[in-house]
């Protein structure tokens, strides 16, 4: 549960406070004519590098479902404090072949320090040194996508860097036409979704206003309420902030924002009632440092499908595999992990991965035995088998795959069962569960999971208390 809460706090708060300390000294202030117009246009030419420093704090409550039979949600106090420092380089919006996105920036993280307290538990998430070079792609809807050219990020790593207020989202806040002091405009919903790291914004009364121009820096204040959605759950975010924009250089100097988000419990995330503050300062850099032309060459190659996936690894389960970003871990212990798949806010499928006891050589189940166990396990929910396959993977794993149809609570359900074993007797059972009419949205996601799955080491057998055989695997349909 705490791994899920960690993801929610860092990714899903939608809260931000960015502030420059001492950037404008009172002695620099020069009056600007209220009748003069100013063009607030971002200069995003390729090669412009900025050093970005961020301080983030969030406090509030997380809401998780109560125990079975209890209607009232459980509330947990939380606090997050984070400091990040990175170089960020515009890459000119390079279009990627055959993709609905463009490469907009390269980034190298010098510092990612995070401390969290959830209830009585404290945590310090980590970020691998090998993943500190990041590419950012802008999708057609304006939302940002993050990838590492050296391999997939973990969900936790993605959540550490995918904070609201990303530098690459800030230009979307600027007015399209020249404005005067006192001019008011309304940011587009896509701009607010990108700024607050929401999936979508449906309604907003946020208005921006140019208040002053001082020594070439435009000060813009904005305030309002945003109604949007994150992971299929409606959310309300109250926003109040300001930013400074260096007109001649076409670059942001700082941004201030205080927001409060209130969101109900969803399919994958706890509910939140959180206020957060984040301070950011951007300083132009003449030295590209870790983002020189040579060092960013891997970013400018079209990111392959694996780089855009996420990586799950567990030393306790002894497993690792890649998965698409529309899957989220919702429960985890020493013997099993549960994932759920969302598509446009709808729950598509559930995946249960369970560690099984090792078996001695020559004691493996046959495909027919596996099929028989599944039929007995499903019992009255069983309808028919669609197919049953046996193969050996490139890693030498024996793989059984059986697809079955049936019903659960009167709903037509499709199950895909896997049993994998290696040459030393390690085993894992995996079952994908979905309503039958979700087959197209599921899009054979199981094939990529199994193709990338690997046993991490061949150490001593774990002192496992996992279920004795496949008969015990959870097979409930992901129906809310």
CATH fold annotation of the largest domain:
Lipovitellin-phosvitin complex, beta-sheet shell regions
CATH class of the largest domain: Mainly Beta
Q: What would you call the shape?
A: elongated
Count of DSSP-assigned helices: 7
For the largest beta-sheet, the strand count, sense and barrel status come to: 13 strands, antiparallel
Helical content (DSSP H or I, runs of 4+): 10-25%
User: Which runs of at least 5 residues are low in confidence (pLDDT < 50)?
Assistant: 1-31, 459-480
Radius of gyration: 25 Å
Polypeptide structure, described:
Helices cover 11% and strands 47% of the residues. The protein is mostly beta strands. The chain has two domains: 2-300, Roll (Lipovitellin-phosvitin complex, beta-sheet shell regions), CATH 2.30.230; 310-472, Mog1/PsbP, alpha/beta/alpha sandwich (Protein Transport Mog1p, Chain A, 3-Layer(aba) Sandwich), CATH 3.40.1000. The longest helix is centred in the C-terminal third of the chain and has 12 residues, at 367-378. Mean pLDDT is 85; it is low at 1-31 and 459-480.
Could you name the key traits of this structure?
13-stranded antiparallel β-sheet; 2 domains; Lipovitellin-phosvitin complex, beta-sheet shell regions; Protein Transport Mog1p, Chain A; disordered C terminus; 480 residues; mainly beta; seven-stranded antiparallel β-sheet
């Amino acid at each position: 549960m705490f791994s899920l809460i960690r993801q929610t706090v860092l990714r899903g708060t939608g809260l931000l406070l960015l502030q420059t300390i001492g950037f404008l000294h009172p002695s620099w202030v020069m009056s600007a004519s209220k009748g003069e117009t100013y063009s607030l246009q971002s200069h995003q030419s390729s090669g412009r590098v900025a050093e970005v420093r961020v301080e983030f704090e969030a406090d509030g409550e997380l809401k998780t479902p109560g125990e079975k039979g209890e209607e009232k949600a459980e509330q947990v106090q939380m606090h997050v404090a984070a400091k990040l420092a990175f170089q960020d380089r515009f890459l000119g919006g390079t279009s990627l072949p055959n993709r609905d996105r463009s490469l907009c920036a390269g980034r190298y993280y010098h510092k990612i320090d995070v401390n969290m307290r959830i209830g009585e538990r404290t945590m310090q998430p980590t970020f691998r040194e090998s993943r500190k070079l990041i590419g950012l792609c802008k999708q057609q809807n304006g939302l940002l996508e993050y990838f590492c050219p050296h391999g997939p990020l973990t969900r936790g790593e993605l959540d550490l860097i995918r904070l609201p207020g990303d530098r690459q989202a800030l230009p979307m806040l600027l007015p399209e036409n020249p404005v005067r002091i006192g001019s008011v405009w309304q940011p587009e919903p896509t701009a607010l979704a990108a700024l607050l790291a929401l999936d979508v914004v449906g309604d907003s009364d946020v208005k921006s206003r140019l208040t002053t121009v001082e020594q070439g820096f435009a000060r813009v204040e904005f305030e309002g309420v945003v109604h949007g959605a994150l992971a299929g759950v409606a959310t309300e975010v109250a926003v109040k902030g300001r930013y400074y924009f260096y007109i001649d250089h076409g670059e942001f100097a700082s941004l201030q924002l205080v927001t409060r988000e209130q969101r109900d419990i969803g399919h994958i995330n706890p509910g939140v009632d959180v206020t957060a503050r984040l301070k950011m300062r951007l300083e132009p850099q003449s030295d590209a440092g870790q983002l020189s032309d040579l060092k960013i060459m891997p970013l400018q190659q079209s990111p392959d499908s694996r780089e855009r996936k996420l990586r799950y690894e567990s030393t306790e389960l002894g497993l690792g595999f890649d998965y698409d970003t529309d899957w989220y871990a919702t429960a985890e212990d020493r013997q099993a992990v549960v994932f759920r798949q969302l598509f446009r806010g709808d729950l598509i499928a559930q995946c249960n991965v369970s560690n099984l006891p090792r078996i001695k050589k020559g004691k493996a189940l046959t495909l027919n035995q596996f099929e028989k166990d599944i039929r007995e396990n499903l019992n009255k929910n069983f309808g028919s088998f669609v197919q049953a396959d046996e193969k050996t993977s490139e890693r030498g794993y024996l793989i059984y795959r059986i697809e079955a149809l049936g019903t659960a609570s009167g709903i037509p359900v499709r199950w895909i069962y896997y049993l994998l074993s290696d040459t030393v007797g390690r085993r894992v059972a995996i079952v994908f569960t979905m309503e039958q009419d979700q087959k197209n949205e599921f899009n054979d996601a199981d094939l990529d999971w199994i193709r990338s799955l690997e046993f991490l080491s061949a150490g001593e057998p774990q002192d496992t208390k996992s279920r004795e055989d496949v008969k015990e695997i959870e097979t409930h349909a992901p129906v809310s």
